[in-house]
Design goal:
Pathway: Purine metabolism; IMP biosynthesis via de novo pathway; 5-amino-1-(5-phospho-D-ribosyl)imidazole-4-carboxylate from 5-amino-1-(5-phospho-D-ribosyl)imidazole (N5-CAIR route): step 2/2. This is N5-carboxyaminoimidazole ribonucleotide mutase. Belongs to the AIR carboxylase family. Class I subfamily. Keywords: Isomerase, Purine biosynthesis. The protein is an alpha/beta fold. It is built from 6 helices and 5 strands; from the N terminus they run E-H-E-H-E-H-E-H-E-H-H. It has a single domain, classed as Rossmann fold (3-Layer(aba) Sandwich), CATH 3.40.50.1970. A 5-stranded parallel β-sheet has the order 2-1-3-4-5, sandwiched between helices. Helix 4 links the parallel strand 4 and strand 5. Helix 2 packs across helix 3 and helix 5 crosses helix 6. The longest helix has 16 residues. The structure holds 5-O-phosphono-beta-D-ribofuranose.
């Protein structure tokens, strides 16, 4: 793939099962991306470096997934003006409600575009990243519109 435009980051390798849905969506739409494990708790220096360097490396949208006390999306958003899309990963103890509340309740001034808990949220983060990039990319705009139309066409009139 060419120069990555979307950075998919996650707090742990255990988040990949969820976050791979975002990567699959970007692959389907032909959007160059990169994937990294960046933990707010275990690798804080890596987090700072990633957030500070992303724009200069050509990244345009960051998709950040984490579970539990999920600081990653908010911390990254605090250090870059790039759009940050947060994916709450389902947790063992609270099924991802903890992740959701950790990510969604940002104070005014530092936005994180928060998606649904789990795989649907990850897939939609990929689609949302595509929508943002499509504003300045007519080819991608056409692929996104075609993908949505194909989804519509798959819905039958009747359940039987
Ligand atoms: C978070 O803790 C990660 O984002 C992950 O969702 C969760 C559990 O991580 P592991 O203990 O599986 O590495 O930081």
């Amino acid at each position: 793939m060419s120069q990555p435009l979307v950075g998919i980051i996650m707090g742990s390798t255990s988040d990949w099962e969820t976050m791979s849905r975002a990567a699959e969506m970007l692959e389907t739409l032909g959007i160059a991306h990169e994937t990294r494990v960046v933990s707010a708790h275990r690798t804080p220096d890596r987090l700072v470096a990633y957030a500070r360097e992303a724009e200069g490396r050509g990244i345009r949208v960051i998709v950040a997934g984490a579970g539990g006390a999920a600081h990653l999306p908010g911390m990254v958003a605090a250090m870059t003006h790039l759009p940050v899309l947060g994916v709450p990963v389902r947790s063992k103890s609270l099924s991802g409600l903890d992740s959701l509340l950790s990510i969604v309740q940002m104070p005014a001034g530092i936005p994180v575009g928060t998606l649904a808990i789990g795989e649907a949220g990850a897939a939609n983060a990929g689609l949302m990243a595509a929508s943002i990039l499509a504003l300045n990319d007519e080819g991608l705009r056409d692929r996104l519109v075609a993908w949505r139309q194909a989804q519509t066409d798959k819905v039958p009139d009747s359940p039987q």
